[in-house]
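[INFO] parsing input record for PTS lactose/cellobiose transporter subunit IIA
[DEBUG] input buffer:
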Amino acid sequence: MDLESTVMELIINAGESKSLAMQALSNAKKGHWDEVDELLKQSTEAAKRAHGVQTELIGLDEGQGKVPVNLIMVHAQDHIMTSMLARELIEELIDMHRKFS
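[DEBUG] output buffer:
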């Protein structure tokens, strides 16, 4: 496995997930609900891909330090966690927009 490519895949998918969720929120503010639902679906798929890569890395490590921890790995883990938190909060905001529209 090319660790650097794998970590970059994690970062790219997590970033895409967050970006799509932000686009969904922007559309929710405008009341474009069909776009919101599609963007959230795409965001979820990107998040699943990111999580799959993360799970693969954890499996390779087996809790034994087999996968080297370097700055890019820490950055990737931070990126996925931030993306997950952003998506959760954005989904709540979108629900509020739906209720008030």
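[INFO] The chain has a mean pLDDT of 94.
[INFO] shutting down worker
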